[in-house]
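Hi everyone, sorry if this is the wrong subforum. Our group has a chain we'd like a structural model of before ordering constructs, and none of us has done structure prediction before. Sequence below.
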Amino acid sequence: MSNVQNKVAVVTGAASGIGRALALGLARRGARLALSDVHDRGLADTADRIKALGADVHIAHLDVSDRAAVEAYAAAVADHYGTVHQIYNNAGVPGGSRTVLDADWESYEHVIGINLFGVIHGTKAFLPHLIASGDGHVINVSSLNGYLAQPMLSDYCASKFAVRGFTEALRAEMLAARHPVRVTVVHPGGVRTNIANAGLEKMRAAGREPTAQELARVDTYNSRLLTLPAERAAQIIVDGVERGSPRILVGRDAKSVDLLVRLLPKLYPKLLLRVERRLFGDA
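Answer:
Right subforum, don't worry. Here is the predicted structure as tokens:
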């Protein structure tokens, strides 16, 4: 039997991308779902697809950067299902695509508020319920940029490196206290989602029209780098969760970059700049 079957699994950022694919993959394996997002239309569409599979689903509008809202949400999910077994802290936003010199404080606060504090809020709010279930699992989604630092992504890299550190510290604590909770950090590589386009939307919402160079950069991401289907990424993640893997690398690029960073920690930034110049011509 799948160790996901009949489990109550919470997925944040479930309106699209990896979050939606995770929700559908978990539903097909017999999980009961609690899904959230700030994008209500996409979330409702995900829920409709899950209902068509015959799975139980609870949905809620949720801004993961709002600690009080996440705490109230955890209580509501536990009240609805009576227990919670798994939390997939997946919700995230792209970085501001600017240098440290040019980046504004609002971008750092927004990205870290969602990508890092969203993970912390979700973990702390649900952890007592996971412990009480007797078979809990925390799954925190970092990124390839949780171990690879890239120029123009200081806000995003800071948040994703921190997710990795937070998750590994949590794992050590669960082991030390002998709590019945496994802990996994996920590092996706280039997954075919809307994250690059969302970065453009974020610029425009802030009143800044993307430059031709920025538009070309996003086009390169979409056509050459973000290639792994979200459905395949979700399968890799859930397979890893069922194996109890503490660390899941999603995609060949995530695995090769992980090896590069480990073997050549001093040299990889220079190699990365060469690749960036070849791809974008602007690094």
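For your construct planning: The chain has eleven helices and nine strands. Strands lie at 8-12, 32-37, 57-61, 86-89, 136-141, 181-188, 191-192, 228-229, 247-250.
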